[in-house]
Design a protein that fits this description.
Elements lengths: L9 E6 L2 E16 L4 E3 L9 E8 L1 E7 L8 E4 L8 E4 L4 E4 L8 E9 L4 E12 L6 E8 L5 E8 L8 E8 L2 E6 L2 E6 L7 E8 L2 E4 L3 E2 L1 H5 L3 H4 L3 H51 L7
Parallel strand pairs: 2-10
Antiparallel strand pairs: 1-2, 3-8, 4-5, 4-9, 5-6, 7-8, 9-10, 11-12, 12-15, 13-14, 13-16, 16-17, 16-18
Subcellular location: Membrane
Protein name: SLAM family member 9
Keywords: Adaptive immunity, Disulfide bond, Glycoprotein, Immunity, Immunoglobulin domain, Innate immunity, Membrane, Signal, Transmembrane, Transmembrane helix
Length: 289
Amino acid sequence: MCAFPWLLLLLLLQEGSQRRLWRWCGSEEVVAILQESISLPLEIPPNEEVENIIWSSHKSLATVVPGKEGHPATIMVTNPHYQGRVSFLDPSYSLHISNLSWEDSGLYQAQVNLRTSQISTMQQYNLRVYRRLSEPQITVNFESSGEGACSMSLVCSVEKAGMDMTYSWLSQGDSAYTFHEGPVLSTSWRPGDSALSYTCRANNPISNVSSRPIPDGPFCADPNYASEKPSTAFCLLAKGLLVFLLLVILAMGLWIIRVQKRHKMPRMKKLMINRMKLRKEAKPGSSPA
């Protein structure tokens, strides 16, 4: 569990009539994804009998008392926030948290009390929870000047981005690439300049996403370019609504046809019965002998 014990902090504490040695095993950075799961790994020294393991985060989280051979461990979850979301993985009783929320971020601590050597080890974890990023959205602000030239400001943003976000811009033109740091990119264009396209990249510790390329020339040459280019999401939504409308019309047509058939069938039966009665009445009776 503690790979370099000579670098660790050892404290000798008095506990009643017993002496217990405390060993600090350092802190570990852990990143996880919102609404998914994470395990905080815990190692038990070999050939040691564990008295209990106390997990805590801000306050006591759970206590694990390993069972004797052939018997399960006794687990007491003491923090209602984690009830039903934590489990302890054999054989080291590492802490597994499911359905992570923002509130799960923070410091965690595992105190392992060893019965054999009368040593207690302390391991700390700094858990940071992040959301998977959606596609960046680009806002284009441009101002035209004389002779068709214009200045543009591109602003990159991600919905519900959270913390530890970084933004960068990649400009491409004539097989040359240029990088710009930050969410805002300012540039200019005039007729005769080589065409460039700009792509925003957004990152957090668990995601790396890019926007669609944005060309500079069309925005300056045609002020209505932005309004004439509906977004992909809007096009997909419009197509989906059109298909849904056609399906509704088709279903209503089939229903009307079925209702009409149901009303028509009794009339046809009644008409056939009346015809058969008329035919029987029209037959001449047999002559007397």
